[in-house]
Specification:
By secondary structure, this protein is an all-alpha fold. It is about 65% helix and about 0% strand. Helix 8 crosses helix 10. The radius of gyration is 17 Å and the shape is globular.
Length: about 240
Amino acid sequence: MNKKNTLKKIKALALNIDHNIAFKGKSKGNKHLMRVVRVAEFLAQKTGADQFITTAGAFLHDTALPSGNDYNYLQNKKIVKRLLKTFHLNQNELDSIAECVASHEGTVKPKTLEAKIVHDADVLEKAGLLGIIRHTWKLTNSGKINHNMVKDEDVKKVLDHIVWRSKRLQTPMAKKIQKYVTVSIDRRRAKVIVSLTAGMAFKGIITEKIAVAIRKHLTKQQNKKLKEQLSLSYFSRFK
């Protein structure tokens, strides 16, 4: 098996699902998947994890989204194994990649180092201000937030989810990064951001464009951290 070519095919499959199938194509063009892959590869280098399994798992981590529920561990495994049925993977590779996908939402503890890394890479997308944008986007397009009338309880739901996920980080390096990118934000400003994000998310505006639109509502420090999250420039601080 040529792993490089296999990863190219996996990337194409994952991007098609993320951009054209999940959320009825509303998230087309967003950079979430590529950021998760880059963070996962960065963490894999720091921990000595298998790069092929980590990268494949990171690309495929959201492949259960079209099902409407990517929190179901066993269902996630079945979905990704079905998608990879025609790929020339041995059983160990298939099982290892499936574990990365199945446990990425933190509903169960990841069983392998590679799965822990994919989980943590996804959590870092749900940290700080980027996390507020991304989770609001997901809840809005899952019908769990009314974009026309964002309530205080909706804001609490978003912020609580970010805290919940951060507590499940598995690797020391990811915990350090999460601590760095996290910025304090008061509830009033958080509600403004959630409200603006929900309205734009409903229209299918992607994360990166929403981030630009909310800049004027952020402090200088908050803008700095959000920019670092989007560009992953914080890598240089953790060499």
